[in-house]
Amino acid sequence: MNSPDTLVTSRPKRIFPKTTGLTALWRHRQTLRVLVQRDLAVKYQKTVMGYFWSLLEPMGLATIYWFVFGVVMQVGARGDSALEHVDYSLYIVSGIFAWMWASSAISEATTCLTSQSSLITTMKVPREVFPVARVVARFAEFLAGIPIIVIFALLGRGISAGTFGWNLLLLFPAVALQAVLLTGLAFILASLNVLYRDVQRFMRLVTRILFYAVPSIYPLALVLKSDNLPEWAKSIYLANPFVVIVEIHHEAWIPGLNNLTWQMITTSVAISVFLLFFGRWMFHRLEPMVLKEL
């Protein structure tokens, strides 16, 4: 029989899963579905227009930027030559809806743990479900906006410009890549914000800067062909994976842009996948401290 002096008590070592948690998410897909439905229901409860609010904001922004950049500044007329054959409003609407998914997902995923602390500490589910649920919920709002983009294409010159062709298949890689990037960022920001509440305030500024740092309302060609920007500034700009993602969204609706290179796409994919794995690893490492703080 071992004496008390020989007994060693230690906390079991936490082992990082070799996957990104997709298996666990699949096992708890019903919980994920319920969280997404709950998020959408709570967000629009006691409102007359309901889910229409998810369309009103991007449509309002698109109208404002179309007037400022398209009518007043004539950006579409002196930007990428491909925009001469398509209404500039279609370019802005497709970019705005793509960016609103990113912006709202980043903002709400950052606070998803602190705003649901009692639920997180009582439910026996992988905590990764909560930030992922915010990304999926905002994706549902993005899907609701696709008919609006189709209407803009039909009312404009989308049919004659070849909008409704094989190029629409680019929406699938655009959505997949954006989901990977947003999920990785959600893991990182959600866990860090529990420990440092400055993160949510800082991200408000970052998302505003990022909005103008991606070609959602102006043609990417204006940046690529600009003589006022040094090459190192262009390299930093193109290192932002959101630039490629938003441009793929544009190319899905507007064929003929051809501003992307395989190097740009590969860089964006590599950064997005890295952030997914790194975010999952960071979430796993910080989880004990996060739960203690909650």
TrEMBL record:
Annotated InterPro entries: ABC2_TM, ABC2_TM_bact-type
Keywords associated with the record: Cell inner membrane, Cell membrane, Membrane, Transmembrane, Transmembrane helix, Transport
PROSITE patterns per record: ABC_TM2
GO molecular function per UniProt: ABC-type transporter activity
Presence of the UniProt keyword Zinc in the record: no
Pfam families per record: ABC2_membrane (PF01061)
Gene Ontology biological-process entries: lipopolysaccharide transport
Membrane topology category: Multi-pass membrane protein
PANTHER family for this protein: INNER MEMBRANE TRANSPORT PERMEASE, TRANSPORT PERMEASE PROTEIN
Family per record: Belongs to the ABC-2 integral membrane protein family.
UniProt name for this protein: Transport permease protein
Lineage of the organism: Bacteria, Bacillati, Actinomycetota, Actinomycetes, Glycomycetales
